[in-house]
Amino acid sequence: MNLVLTFDYELFGDGLGDVFEHMIKPTEQILSICEEANIKTTIFFEVVEYLRLKEEWNKGNNMGYERNPIEAIDQQIHQAVKKGHDIQLHIHPQWVNAKYINDKWQVDLLNWRLGDFKTNRNYSIKDLLEDGKSTLENIVQKVKPEYECIALRAGAYNIMPSKKVLAAMTKIGLKLDSSVYPGGYEDGELSKYDYRNISLEKDFWWADPDNILQEAKSLGRIMEIPIFALEQPRWKKILNFEKLKSLLIKRGAAVSSVAKTKLSSKSLFEKIAFLFETEAFTWDFCLFNKSMHKTFFNYIEENLQDKRDTFVILGHPKSFTTEHSLRSLIEIAQKSNCSYSFKTLQEVYAEFSK
């Protein structure tokens, strides 16, 4: 069975964070562990954020950095590519109109969702994805001339409504998406999507041009390779050493705006009840403890072994505070009686598209 280790290479969605502390340093640790285990990852590079940082640096604003963050990002991506890692496109549209004011980034929260992207300028979803794809190709082709960006992950999983996104992807040559996760549901001020009807038994599907959640009646243009997720009581996600450490070390920035919105208006009783309700957890190699990884492996081996063979795992370097979670995942996979192999998203797409 295939495990696809992916991570979103980015700062925090609200504009907080430090390129070196939350991207460069933890990514070095992740890639070092992967090199020891001979694992190739897929890095979803947040390009719009990168472009805003570059624009500000080129204007002469060092944004508090003692050395060039753009140069550091470029060098890290080049090194990753040289070692065989896969680089693909990640887009948080709130960065399109972001401004650096009073020593911090102010992002455009009205443009949180890619599927609802809008701007005052004559700038479409197609333009946004095309700029992202070409920027990524310009960076990577410096060390790998034949490189082509083929995959997208929408920021905070917000690819819905998907019709315009799929049309734009098709026009510019993107071939697959990995934003959807079975059981996912958000209906807040920022994130809005409903993936509750997505089957756990599908490795991939060709998306209907009007709706990425439905299969195309004939061979589609865009493939969806979902992130693997299972429903679990919420307290397992929150009362977990890796998560608590991330919240403490990252100075509170790891608490998402979505999570704050969910809890802010609830009474104490409602907050306690909320913790015992179930929620779909994406398989996370930065925040899960060993027990949670075992839960996911056991579910696969007991329920899905004869039905599918590829599982996309997710992580965020900004939440990576200890090597324990990633090393535990690799150890369990290597010791399992099942045969697990780690592949990139590019590799499994090539297999599926045959």
Automatic annotation (TrEMBL):
What is the top-level taxon of the source organism?
Bacteria
Q: Which Gene3D superfamilies match?
A: Glycoside hydrolase/deacetylase
**What is the name of the protein in this document?**
Polysaccharide deacetylase
**Can you supply a Gene Ontology BP term from the record?**
carbohydrate metabolic process
To which species is this protein native?
A: Fodinibius roseus
